[in-house]
Amino acid sequence: MQHRRVQRPPRIVVLGAGFGGLTFCQTFRHPTAEIVLIDRQNHHLFQPLLYQVATAALSAPEIAQPIRAILCDVPNLNVHLAEVTDIDVAARTVTSEAGVFDYDYLVVALGGRTTYFGHPEWEKFAPGLKTLDDAQRIRRELLMAFEKAENTSDPDERRRLMTIVVVGGGPTGVELAGACSELAHTVLRSDFRRIDPAHAKIILVEGSPRLLGQLPESLGQEAHDRLVEMGVEVRCGVRVLDIRKGEVHLAEGILLAENILWAAGVGASPLAAKLGCEIDRAGRAKASQDLSVPGHPEVFAIGDIVALVDKDGQVVPGVSPAAMQAARHVARQIEDELEGLPDARRPFDYWDKGSMATIGRSAAVAKMGSLELTGFPAWAAWLFVHLVFLIGFRNRVAVMFQWAYSYFTYKRGARIIYGLRRPS
Amino acid sequence: MQHRRVQRPPRIVVLGAGFGGLTFCQTFRHPTAEIVLIDRQNHHLFQPLLYQVATAALSAPEIAQPIRAILCDVPNLNVHLAEVTDIDVAARTVTSEAGVFDYDYLVVALGGRTTYFGHPEWEKFAPGLKTLDDAQRIRRELLMAFEKAENTSDPDERRRLMTIVVVGGGPTGVELAGACSELAHTVLRSDFRRIDPAHAKIILVEGSPRLLGQLPESLGQEAHDRLVEMGVEVRCGVRVLDIRKGEVHLAEGILLAENILWAAGVGASPLAAKLGCEIDRAGRAKASQDLSVPGHPEVFAIGDIVALVDKDGQVVPGVSPAAMQAARHVARQIEDELEGLPDARRPFDYWDKGSMATIGRSAAVAKMGSLELTGFPAWAAWLFVHLVFLIGFRNRVAVMFQWAYSYFTYKRGARIIYGLRRPS
User: Which of B280, B331, B361, B374 fits B307 for a cystine, CB–CB 3.0-4.6 Å?
Assistant: First the structure.
């Protein structure tokens, strides 16, 4: 596509202020082009630490940063807090709560959402973890289960209240199960008089034969062994047939649990279907190698909304480094095109920085290049990487303090239930 | 009352884990007596800093501490997270969501709630500030008003969206108005591209002729002058006739404002009426000088639920030091009575430690004994007192860090809106 002659400066509309959308806005440089960024929240959320908000280790504002504050120095940029309701790639317009925007370029970075393998009715009984509201709801229900257990005298009911089932053995499921185990077995240990939270049962259910399928088998086994040591019951190769209120139905029987957490299915934003290209089973847009949408070179899709094989034939995973690299790639291409440079379009080359998951205190697994780490070194690497990528000096210091506090005292500060009562 | 011979150890039921109830549990000492503490939340809330959560300076968990964690070392104590629904002083029972409890002594420390001078219908349009949920709702609506203003092009609507009316010129109203002014005029200043939050209008309305009626007139005037300097429009001697959605009706006209915050009326918990004694206009129980309820020497009322003149004829105000002193007084009396000591009942002697209100950056007013402070010294004293009384080492460090951060950067970290969207 040639640099189109337009009366007004070229306008780039960016949808979503996750890792992809934000990185685009931070790295795109052009003297006149105008950027319009639309997000349904006022904050960028550091999703990798969301499970710590859900398990009361961190408070919500510590892993979020106002979008306007992050981008306040970027010139020619307008932020709109609005839900996007439609994309019309033929008319080149985006419809949102804040009005209709036309664009010269569109960068779709709307991210993923929890999916239930065709069973949306499970959502009510097994919440997923995508937003701060999800995390606060899960925190409330986890803490309330122990409160209810303290107030009941029926041993079966007490057992049910003190059981947590985590569905999905990827990084989120492993981290959630580990954090739930620490919450129950360590943090809450001395809080109650009639129940012993150390007797809480945490069950991790995974459909495939092992945990952490995207990491080498030895690391999956390490995570498995550490979770079992921490008192988590790990069940691999087990399929979930049905989920009802407080019940997980497996082929081998029914698990009764007050809390069922869903960490199994990630799909794309339903707006992917509006891009007019092929979508895969998870609802992700099948983009071209330059990250544009086939037939619409002015529309790019990056991050969890896109299904992509890079130029080396590598499947690009739905992780934040991939979204950030894709954002930079798209920014360079648009800059070059607006400058009228030749060969502005290039295939995306994903650089796999590795992958990691934390299990608990001083326990994690990590793969970086050919390096495989476990135990304390992996855990230290995990801490370091997460602090570096967390946005905002204030958040980094606050999170570092909370972690140090929890590490040395075995306590967690954010064990606060709100949203419990209707306004009085 | 003589020490009653009972088969089981004496049981003391405490209602409410605010400053009064918590102090009672922390200071009461008896080898066998059993304490049952019932609260409708799982946390003790440091209400004096609630306005900072509402104005995005602090996050909710920083001013709250789990009750179980605070009291985990107190022997013979059970905590129940439950709403109290009835008190039967004749049958000596308390009914709650967690069941019916009988007692030998009852300590009622249920605190206050926002009241609307006989206009409960105003609550919907002018939220009060009593709980973390209130604070989060106000924070969301304050921040959303600026987001909406950024998206509108109608100048009248923009002006309305950027107007905040605070009703009530006591400490809470003064602190809220000052904090709203700082939020709009300093913190949000560079966040927006189309609106200038510095043009936001904050109006403080007070019915009596001056601010901070409980402090000396010179300090009320000081607060008034500092607020005006900060761009707050202060209107004293003005009565609110009606409140509707986005409208405050005064004799002199109607104020149009997206946000109306109510800091005017504090009344007692409606359960005060169950104590079978006289109640005052604010719904507070008129207790005897030993803090028991007339006719029921085994029932004590402390804190904001009680209307009291102490033995020197001094009206005991509804502030946390009064609740804490009353709690200690009641604890000593019950201990002595259980020991069979003579003269176990004594009139309560309130020691007025003073009163203070912060207005903004380096600006506060304080009265301690005969000492009157303004400006930086008052502000430093305010910081010191609030950090000392905030419960929990973690919270103290976290709040100190947030304050230092805000002081040096003119930013606020907790500008995060959640609860904005229905789950997707």
Answer: B280
Return d(Cα B35, Cα A191) in angstroms, integer: 15
Q: Under DSSP, is residue A313 helix (H, G, I), strand (E, B) or coil?
A: coil
pLDDT in tens, B96-153: 999 999 999 999 999 999 999 889 999 999 999 999 999 999 999 999 999 999 989 8
d(CA B416, CA B418): 6
Instruction: Give B 109-148 residues with CB within 8 A of chain A.
Output: 113, 123, 127, 130-134, 136-137, 143-144, 147
In this complex, do B416 and A150 lie within 8 Å of one another by their Cβ atoms?
no
Q: How far apart, in whole angstroms, are the C-alpha atoms of residue A350 and residue A107?
A: 18
With a cut of 70, which residues of chain A have pLDDT below it? 1-7, 422-424
Closest CA to A130 of A67, A54, A240, A21: A54
Helical residues (DSSP H) of A270-374, grouped into ranges: 320-338
* CA B238 and chain centroid, separation: 24
Catalytic residue among A62, A175, A182, A337: A175
So what's the pLDDT on residue B423? 45
Quote the CA–CA distance of A248 and A238 in Å, as a whole number.
11
Tell me how close the Cα of A179 comes to any Cα of chain B, in angstroms: 19
Instruction: Tell me what pLDDT residue B424 has.
Output: 39
Task: Write out pLDDT tens, residues A327-343.
Answer: 999 999 999 999 999 99
Three-state SS sequence of chain B: CCCCCCCCCCEEEEECCCHHHHHHHHHCCCCCCEEEEEECCCEEECHHHHHHHHCCCCCHHHHEEEHHHHCCCCCCEEEEECCEEEEECCCCEEEECCEEEECCEEEECCCEEECCCCCHHHHHCCCCCCCHHHHHHHHHHHHHHHHHHHHCCCHHHHHHHCEEEEECCCHHHHHHHHHHHHHHHHHCCCCCCCCCHHHCEEEEECCCCCCCCCCCHHHHHHHHHHHHHCCEEEECCCCEEEEECCEEEECCEEEECCEEEECCCEEECHHHHHHCCCECCCCCEECCCCCEECCEEEEEECHHHEECECCCCCECCCCHHHHHHHHHHHHHHHHHHHCCCCCCCCCCCCCCCCEEEEEECCEEEEEECCEEEEHHHHHHHHHHHHHHHCCCHHHHHHHHHHHHHHHHHCCCCCCCCCCCCCCC
User: Catalytic site residue B337?
Assistant: no
Which residues are CB-neighbours of A219 under 8 A, at least 6 positions away?
A212, A365, A366, A367, A372, A374
Q: In what order do the strands lie in the sheet with A99-102?
A: A84-88, A93-96, A99-102
Closest by alpha carbon to B35, among B3, B66, B83, B67?
B67
Distance from CA of A392 to the nearest CA of B (A): 9
Check CB contact under 8 Å for B59 and A64: no
In 3D, which of B57, B253, B258, B238 has the Cα closest to residue B141? B258
Of the residues B41, B43, B59, B84, the best mutation for testing chain A's interface (the one with the most A CB atoms within 10 Å of its CB) is: B59
Interface contact flag, A418 B132, Cβ < 8 Å: yes
Instruction: Give the tens place of pLDDT for each residue, A283-338.
Output: 999 999 999 999 999 999 999 999 998 888 888 988 899 999 999 999 999 999 99
Which stretches of chain B score pLDDT less than 70?
A: 1-7, 422-424
Task: Give the ipTM of the model, two decimals please.
Answer: 0.84
From the list B62, B83, B175, B233, the catalytic residue is: B175
Nearest CB to A416; choose among B66, B413, B418: B66
Please compute Rg for chain A using Cα positions: 23
Asked if residue A362 lies in contact with residue A390, where contact means CB atoms within 8 angstroms, the answer is: no
Cβ atoms within 10 Å of B371's Cβ, excluding its own? 11
CA of A391 vs chain B CAs: smallest distance (Å): 12
pLDDT of amino acid B1? 45
